[in-house]
Write a structure and sequence with these properties.
Length: about 300
């Protein structure tokens, strides 16, 4: 199927439309007349643009546009106020509409594998958003408004060009899972320790040389990956992360002597720690018996 007729917009009672894996390059303006449409799948086509009438799909709740050739979205896109699920991964998007914050019902947004270099300031108005994937774009920074995503639980922004996070990042009070591997982060904001719900944190393959003093406040943290960074030490109160079960510190420059309290943590709750190539890590505290000692000895 290479095109839809203009008369397609006369199907006023249509609620679900699946057109994936075709050869569509354009859509008719009449598509905006499908006022009852709730689910629309246009994935795996050849679309390069959407009609401006697209924003009139006022009942639309689920939209898949992945694996197309979209460079931009129409300005009317922010008017899809019923939209809850949006899949846009594997396109050629260079920017998002300034009114993207109008998607007030949006709960899941997958926009990886595009060419985004920035997000509009209105992005922080997506307060219903729970799951967000921004992987494999060209993002250098996140807007200061990003901290307004108060419902966000899962954020994945790996394989970008991020050099810093906004200070408002600590306001993401619902965040449980965070993936930021493969960026250029040299530091984390001091507000990072306010992420009290965070359970999984993956920060491997960055440029981190130090962790913020607030880092040990991440009381719910269970899985931590900091491999392939430039860390020379850990915060003195690192041992306070009593819920930690999995830690990866490989390929850093850690040389600082670790305290007995850290080894108490290791023996009581940690599963195998990755410590290879930590720049000759000095372990001077006595190793207690238990899982932590065996793990450390295996990784020596």
């Amino acid at each position: 199927l290479a095109e839809l007729p203009e008369a397609f917009g006369d199907l006023r009672q249509l609620r679900m439309l699946y057109l994936s894996s075709n050869q569509l390059t354009t859509l008719p303006e009449s598509l905006g007349r499908l006022a009852a449409l709730q689910k629309l799948n246009l994935g795996d086509n050849r679309l390069v643009a959407l009609p401006e009438s697209f924003g009139r799909l006022s009942a639309l709740q689920e939209l898949c546009l992945s694996h197309n050739r979209l460079v931009r979205l129409p300005e009317s896109f922010g008017e899809l106020r019923a939209l809850q699920l949006l899949e846009l991964y594997h396109n050629r998007l260079e920017s998002l509409p300034e009114n993207i914050g109008g998607l007030v019902a949006l709960r899941m947004l997958y926009i990886g594998a595009n060419d985004l270099t920035a997000l509009p300031e209105s992005f922080g108005q997506l307060r219903a958003l729970r799951n967000l994937s921004l992987n494999a774009n060209r993002l250098v920074r996140l807007p200061e408004s990003f901290g307004g995503l108060s419902s966000l639980r899962t954020l994945s922004s790996s394989a970008n060009l991020l050099i810093e996070l906004p200070e408002s990042f600590g306001n993401l009070s619902s965040l449980q899972h965070l993936r930021l591997e493969g960026n250029r982060l040299a530091r984390l904001p001091e507000s990072f320790g306010q992420l009290r719900a965070l359970r999984t944190l993956q920060l491997g393959i960055n440029h981190l040389g130090v962790l913020p003093r607030s880092f040990p406040h991440l009381a719910a943290l269970r899985t931590l990956s900091l491999n392939h960074n430039l860390l020379t030490s850990l915060p003195g109160d690192f041992w306070r992360l009593s819920e930690l079960q999995d830690v990866d510190l490989r390929w850093n420059l850690i040389r600082r002597t670790w305290s007995e309290r850290f080894f108490d943590l290791a023996s009581s709750c940690l599963r195998p720690l990755g410590l290879q190539c930590c720049g000759g890590l000095a372990v001077t505290a006595p190793l207690p018996a238990g899982r932590g000692r065996a793990a450390l000895e295996r990784q020596a």
